[in-house]
Amino acid sequence: MKHTVDGAREAFSTGRTLPLTWRRQQLEGLERMLSECGEEIREALSQDLGKSSAESQLTEVLSVRSEIRHTARSLRKWTRPRRVRTPLTLGMASAAVQREPLGTVLIISPWNYPVHLLLMPLVGALAAGNTVVLKPSEMAPAVSALMARRIPEYLEPEAVVVVEGGADETTRLLEQPFDHIFFTGGSGVASIVMSAAAKHLTPVTLELGGKSPAWVDGSADLKEAAESIVWGKFTNSGQTCVAPDHVLSTPELAEPLGKEISRAIIRAYGTDPQQSGDYGRIVNERHARRLAALLEQDSGRALIGGDVDVAGRYVSPTVLLDVPEDAAVMEEEIFGPILPIVTVADHRAAIEVINSRPKPLALYAFTRDAQVRADFVERTSSGGLAFNTVMTQLAVPALPFGGVGPSGMGRYHGEYSLQTFSHERAVLRKLPGPDPTRLVRAPVGRRVRRLLVKR
């Protein structure tokens, strides 16, 4: 493992990753790979997660290609030195902020979007001029093997290295010094990553998750809200970090909303979602059993769904009503196709519930009430906030994506990715001319001393 990391460090030390031409070549190579290997990618995603070709193309391939194009178009502007004003006390001088690459970075990706969440941060790391060690998830073995085989064919092999394997390989990687570690996954492993990074004083970006709530009130269009929630919640069988984890609504609205969501599920996946070509599978039997256990506990009344086939890695789209706040499904991130609806008195009570829990990665509110929107903006904290839609905040390249508190630290997408993988270096140049700092150099005269004391 040391040899692998040392090789990436040696590639960076040559300076060949610094020119914009090299960075553009890598981005172009990455886009070619996504285009030319599209069928292989979709097949691997089908094997690992049962994803349909349409879902794979939209959420895993086209999203990364869009990021590549946006970054390539803006690269020169984002990397240009940014002039800043200097104080008069420095006399004639110029100052600028220059973005420079960090060096060699480690990107550890999860299994739920094994292409998107491996390559999206890679775009920013390459655009910033770094060399990269990639660690795909062993829980998506088909995608991991494909990335290990194809990436060296399209990107410079010495500069972008793929390391396959499980926890042992990840542990050995974390023992090596890196200039930045970018991790996407759960909070448990994030603690291990952060502890390992601390030994080398390595900065980290942690993209985690949490229980992302959605508020729906009587001013919303229930049918539109239901269809949006169904799309966001049940895409990838609920295995999405920014999916609505649960819904908060009023007692009189809960059942009508639940029935509207149930109808939207049937419109999307039919009466038997297990036979739908658009409905995916749970990543493995262990996670299917975990979700089955949640349904077996006292977690409310199933309005639709509740079916589990552990061997087939299938859990049906499920909507739960009459869910108490202390139910098992409300204790941890569900990360699956189970949607509890919890009742509260009004939006202020919903905000109190939200604020009583760890800050979520995403927060959604379906409302047409301007005061309700203002209260959510002013009185809550989350990685992102979206009104009358779910997940589409990720489609805006100028918006940062990242968590806050337990839902993560750091941010990326667009220019924020370049910031994450760059060091913003302060550059000052003293120009010929009078130098006011001479007045405060030793020995300091009596008059200057008095002026300094008065200030």
Automatic annotation (TrEMBL):
Q: Which CDD domains match?
A: ALDH_F3-13-14_CALDH-like
- Protein's UniProt keywords contain Iron-sulfur: no
Stored PROSITE patterns:
ALDEHYDE_DEHYDR_CYS, ALDEHYDE_DEHYDR_GLU
Pfam families documented for this protein: Aldedh
Q: Does the keyword NAD apply?
A: yes
Give the Gene Ontology MF terms in alphabetical order: aldehyde dehydrogenase (NAD+) activity
Q: Which GO terms describe its biological process?
A: aldehyde metabolic process
Check the record and name the SUPFAM superfamilies matching this protein. Answer: ALDH-like
What are the positions of the active site?
207, 241
Q: Where is the signal peptide?
A: none
Query: Listed GO cellular component terms?
Result: cytoplasm
Q: Which InterPro entries match?
A: Ald_DH/histidinol_DH, Ald_DH_C, Ald_DH_CS_CYS, Ald_DH_CS_GLU, Ald_DH_N, Aldehyde_DH_dom, Aldehyde_DH_NAD(P)
Keywords (alphabetical) are: NAD, Oxidoreductase
Residue ranges of the Aldehyde dehydrogenase domain?
A: 2-426
Q: Which family does it belong to?
A: Belongs to the aldehyde dehydrogenase family.
- Which PANTHER family does the entry link to? ALDEHYDE DEHYDROGENASE (PTHR43570), ALDEHYDE DEHYDROGENASE TYPE III, ISOFORM Q (PTHR43570:SF16)
Q: What is this protein called?
A: Aldehyde dehydrogenase
